Amino acid sequence: MSSVTDAFENARLTYEQHMRTCRQCHADAVPCPVAKHLLRVYNNARRDQLRAAGQ
């Protein structure tokens, strides 16, 4: 695996794990600030992966 793919998978797994375990995200049914940050990191990693695949 390339480092771009590794970064994407790591970001995805971190975000998904947070969403499963965060009490605030479950209690409010609204993503907490950490979840919003992790989603931003995940989206950036996904965008980087798409750019790398296109080149």
Detailed description of the structure:
It is a single chain. The chain has 3 helices and no strands. The protein has 55 residues and is mainly alpha-helical. 85% of the residues lie in helices and 0% in strands. The chain has one domain (3-54).
List keywords for this structure.
mainly alpha, 55 residues, 0% strand
How are the SSEs placed, and which strands pair?
Elements lengths: L2 H19 L1 H6 L4 H22 L1
Helix pairs in contact: 1-3
What is the count of β-strands?
0
Query: Helix count?
Result: 3
> What do the pLDDT scores average to?
91
Strand content: under 5%
Poorly predicted ranges (pLDDT <50, ≥5 residues)? none
In whole angstroms, the N-to-C terminal distance is 16 Å
Helix content: over 70%
Secondary structural class: mainly alpha
Largest sheet: none
- List the domain count as a whole number: 1
Helix and strand string, N-terminal first? HHH
Shape by Cα distribution: elongated
Report the radius of gyration as a whole number of Å.
Answer: 13 Å
Question: TL;DR?
Answer:
The protein is mainly alpha-helical and about 55 residues long. Helices cover about 85% and strands about 0% of the residues. The chain has one domain (about 5-55).
